Amino acid sequence: MTLPPFAAGRPLDVIGLGRLCIDLNANEIHRPMEETRTFTKYVGGSPANITIALARLGEKTGFIGRVSDDQHGRFITRYLEERGIDTSHVITDKSGSVTGLAFTEIKSPTDCSILMYRDNVADLKLEPGDIDAAYIGSAKALLVSGTALAASPSREAALKAIHVARECGTVVIFDIDYRPYTWTSREETGIYCSIAAAKSDVILGGREEFDLLDAVYETPHGDDRRTAERWLRESAGIVVVKRGGDGSTVYARDGRSWTGRTFPAQVVKTFGAGDAFAGAFIHGLLHGWDIERCQLFGSAAASIVVASHSCSDAMPTAEQIEGVIGRYANG
Ligand SMILES: Nc1ncnc2c1ncn2[C@@H]1O[C@H](COP(=O)(O)OP(=O)(O)O)[C@@H](O)[C@H]1O
Ligand SMILES: O=C(O)C[C@@H](O)[C@H](O)C(=O)COP(=O)(O)O
After folding, report:
1. Residue 59 falls within a domain, yes or no?
2. Ligand 2: distance of its center to the CA of 23 in Å?
3. What does the UniProt keyword field contain (predicted)?
């Protein structure tokens, strides 16, 4: 697999970095948001969701980020604490920033969209001075979301965190997590995410997200292996290309690859799959599982979350994931 070894004996397993937001998921589903009257509030933000997934699976987790100085910020911080996630480096931003909101529209199980309100959000106020090398060195892995690179000073903070992690022997996991609402251009996304990807040990992204990075170097070609080999020539030991309901393919530096299945699900909404997959996949890596099992675990976790109304709240336990795998073991 050619991942650097996870450092043993560290107090934390994974520290997430980036977006701590709120999902407002429509309660009246199968209609456009113009006809929605009520929403259910959940903690959101992909890196938050993945960290919550890892905590749910028993990993010792922490988070580096900023929250707004209001009820939403306190709700998020309390939610993390209630799930055993260390919040010593979750900073209350005092600049008058707000919490990012993700309004989700569920027109049908396969037609979902997210309306994001992200002006003056606290998560992008993260500063390089917030990055604590000793804290990052206390974890086996650092999970960085690409959206943390979308604006300064968060951009510089995230790049500093990656640099610090590499200096500390902390494995860097980069989830491209492209959200167009935050960036000024696709080119900007490709450039900054390429910088982060080149310094990461594990990279996760969808085909379209990798196209943004490929575009920095060549005309996007949609060839997963060719894309993965670019990053495997850099720092990556593992590249995961996610393809929605078509599953995923994982590429390793030694040339091996694995194409993973999906599990049947009564789909409520399509989003949340990637975060659930990532949390369970990373859990497997931390426990030294082979890639196939990591992938299977991730896919089963995703099938549970797409069948749920929420993302964060729905993140499954290992028992729930094993239950899905056992139920469909033969096909
Ligand atoms: N409709 C679905 N039913 C079951 N599993 C799914 C479904 N959509 C995605 N998955 C699983 O979740 C993984 C990640 O989903 P994907 O949609 O590619 O990520 P993202 O949400 O980040 O775009 C897929 O590789 C697959 O294993
Ligand atoms: O990342 C956000 O700000 C929105 C998420 O909280 C939301 O749950 C979602 O889109 C999940 O992302 P996905 O798992 O990549 O589909």
Report:
1. yes
2. 8
3. ATP-binding, Kinase, Nucleotide-binding, Transferase
Distance 293 CA to ligand 1 centre (A): 16
**Domain assignment of residue 281, yes or no:** yes
Count: domains in the chain? 1
In three-state secondary structure terms, 105 is strand
DSSP single-letter state for residue 28 = S
Question: Ligand 2, residues 25, 40, 75, 114: which to mutate, most atoms within 8 A of Cβ?
Answer: 114
The binding-site residues of ligand 1, defined as CB within 6 angstroms of any ligand atom, are: 206, 242-245, 247-248, 262-263, 265, 267, 270-271, 273-274, 277, 299, 302-303, 306
Structural domain range at position 255: 12-19+45-90+123-327
Place of tokens 């659930």: 276
Helix (H, G, I), strand (E, B) or coil at 307: coil
Asked if 319 and 51 touch (Cβ cutoff 8 Å), the reply is: no
Q: What pLDDT digit, counting tens, does each position of 153-207 carry?
A: 999 999 999 999 999 999 999 999 999 988 999 999 999 999 999 999 999 999 9
pTM, entire model? 0.97
The first and second tokens of residue 13, run together, are 């397993």
Could you report the predicted ipTM of this complex, rounded to two decimals?
A: 0.97
